[in-house]
Amino acid sequence: MDRCTETLNSAGVATLTTSTIPGGRSSITASYTGDSQYGVASSTAATVTVSQIKPAITLVSSVASVTYGAQVELTATLTGSGAAPTGSVAFYSGSVAVGQSSLNNGTATLTLASLPAGKLSVTAHYGGDSNYTAVVSAAASVTVNKGAQTITFAPLPSAVSFGAGPLALSATASSGLAVTFSITGPARVSGTTLTTTGVGTVVITASQGGSADYLTATSVSQTIAVNKAAQAITFKPLATTQTYGVKPLALSATASSGLAVTFGVTGPATVSGTTLTITGAGTVVVTANQNGNADYAAATPVSQTITVNKATQAITFKPLATTQTYGVKPFALSANASSGLPVTFGATGPATVSGTTLTVTGAGTVVVTANQNGNANYAAAAPATQTIEVNKAAQSIAFAPLVKTQLFQTKQLTLNATASSGLAVTFTAKGPAKVSGNTLAFTGSGTIVVTASQGGNANYAAAMPVSQSILVVSASHAGIFPQR
Q: In angstroms, rounded to a whole number, what is the distance separating the alpha carbons of residues 323 and 389?
């Protein structure tokens, strides 16, 4: 109380009745302002001791039950017999201070949104002022239920291929609590990183198990189909042409998956592992395959084509004598081809060939040719030829002896001669005679020289003529030249 004014009664007395003197010792003076008869005057101080009183206090909660995070308004009301209590009120949950609020006309209000979940006993603590002592309210019961929470799970792709890079998982809980991830299917998770480990269906579940203040969140799941990964084959280039007889070739191919590549072949070749063996001339198609497995789809086959040309070959023809004489015995021909294929023989000129036997059939120039015409794998060899000059054969005449002396009266003789060649022998005569065929007819007396000749032919040289002499005499001289 600072200053109060009261009016003097007729007896000159002013009386003040008040309840606003603060607690404690107060020094009170009375001051008179004077009137027309009296001047200003002040009394001596009177000491008054006012004792503090205990105020009444009530605590009210705006709600009896609330969900964690919702607001709760706590109102403490203090009343006393005098002026309204002043100061502030502290609010406690059990022994833990949860807030403080200043009194306003005896009322202190505190709004809270952070009370822990559970059944709470809340009290208001007034510390007192000069008029009122400290006081604690009766407990007010507030039940704070655990808050609900939801999970927001960032969308994942609905399908990925095996071997794709790790996926980042992102999920938040409305509570702000940490979200954990679990999986079923061919994958593993580490923290917020998902790595697929195979083909199949992967279910990723985001969970938040709650806390002292929050209920367990409803889990959120997403499904990813992990498809087989594609793969490609790298096939080391092969020469596009080869020649039959080439050594086996090494094949080399890899798959991007790292799986083993196998090889197949069509055409005149075989494959064993990574070795290609050419078995003939023609078109060879080599195909590299990778058929996939549980995690990889089959790769697109990669093929390469090789044109295998016929191999060349050469003939080795055993030398023949460059000259022969007609009538020589048949002789053997010998030749071989580098391919190992059989060689055949042919001849032009006066000769015949049967298999590997050459038979000379006349004099002249004989050309013998060795041939190998090739096959599916070998080109024809260049023919090999040899030339034989076949000379005419010599021949001789056998002329049957004639009687050296003949009588004219005999008239004629039969001549007999043969050539070793078998060719016909002709006869000529000088002297008194004439020849017709092999008949010698006398035309007079005298000396006759008969010659047997064989002039040869294409295969035989002319024989050396053979001559015989005959003395033809008349009968009157018969005794002089006896027949012999």
A: 5
Beta strands in 372-445 (DSSP E): 384-391, 397-399, 405-407, 412-414, 417-419, 426-430, 433-436, 439-442
**β-bridge mates for residue 96, sequence order:** 93
User: What is the C-alpha end-to-end distance of the chain, expressed in Å?
Assistant: 215
pLDDT > 70? residue 191: yes
pLDDT tens string 263-308? 999 999 999 999 999 999 999 999 999 999 999 999 999 999 999 9
Residue 49 confidence (pLDDT) above 80: no
Cβ-contact 71, 83 below 8 angstroms:
no
Segment 28-36 shows an average pLDDT of 77
d(CA 197, CA 182) in angstroms, rounded, equals 15
Q: What is the DSSP letter of 162?
A: T
Task: Kindly tell me if the per-residue pLDDT of 360 is higher than 80.
Answer: yes
pLDDT tens digits for 302-330? 999 999 999 999 999 999 999 999 999 99
Cα→Cα distances 75→69, 95, 471, Å:
19, 18, 192
Is the model's pTM score more than 0.90?
Answer: no
Alpha-carbon torsion, ordered 78, 79, 80, 84, to 10 deg: 80
Long-range residue pairs from 19-24, CB within 8 A, at least 24 positions apart, any chain: 19/81, 19/82, 19/83, 20/82, 20/83, 21/48, 21/50, 22/50, 22/130, 22/131, 23/50, 23/51, 23/52, 23/53, 23/130, 23/131, 23/132, 24/49, 24/50, 24/130
Domains and CATH numbers, the chain: 1-51 (no CATH), 56-145 (2.60.40.10), 151-227 (2.60.40), 233-309 (2.60.40.1080), 315-391 (2.60.40.1080), 397-477 (2.60.40.1080)
- How far, in Å, CA of 432 to CA of 448, rounded? 6
- CA atoms of 98 and 206, how far apart (whole Å): 34
